[in-house]
Amino acid sequence: MGRLVVIEGLDGSGKRTLTRALTEAFERRGTKVAQHAFPRYGESVHADLVSDALHGRLGDTGDSVHGMAVLFALDRHGAKETLMQDIQDFDVVLVDRYIASNAAYQAARLHQDERGEVVEWIRALEVDRLGLPVPDMQLLLKVPVDLAVSRAETRDRVRDTYEKDGGLQARCARVYDGLAEIGWLAPWLVLDGTGDVDFTELSCTLMADA
After folding, report:
1. Pairing state of beta strands 137-142 and 92-96?
2. Domain extent at residue 140
């Protein structure tokens, strides 16, 4: 049985870079790794509907916190069988964005904190109703909000409404901090995204209690 390790953080925090470097560190020690990233744009109809909504192409859908939360959740549900099989077949399954991402962003949109009503509603939706596997560990990659925003601005694509909203990003960062502090859903490890990360040491830490 493999370990489900989730990487969370703001848009522009460096999650893809961390996923790539951590995968290489695991593979150097002979650990079999599978990777997933959500939303699955271009692969899932629900993810593509998310993209349409976030870019204003789906009427007022993007204005609905609970409606957007359901679309994000259904995208993950569509990958459930693959995730479960990978947990059986690999030592580590690394996921870029997972259930906590939905909780953090939707709570931030409603100006709620880590103990807000929507956080529990999303947990009940994704874990209890949809049966998604609970992570073994969640990594929070922390960077200053202004740095994350500036990184997102340099990407060669049109930013969505979440990425453009600096106030939302700041509130989301606070919710992430709160989720990590209370150990929401699974244990958290907070990483400094502005400094050097010892990926070899991190890979050992993540497998220490496996």
Report:
1. unpaired
2. 3-36+87-207
Q: Is residue 60 part of a domain?
A: no
Structure tokens at 49: 């509907």
End-to-end CA distance of the chain: 9
- Residue-wise pLDDT tens digits, 166-184: 689 899 999 999 999 999 9
The C-alpha atoms of residue 190 and residue 40 are separated, in whole angstroms, by 25
| pLDDT tens string 102-153 | 999 999 999 999 999 999 999 999 999 999 999 999 999 998 888 877 766 6
CB 122 within 8 A of CB 69: yes
124 assigned to some structural domain: yes
State both tokens at 110: 């409603």
Amino acid at 88: Q
| 209 vs 109: CA distance, rounded Å | 36
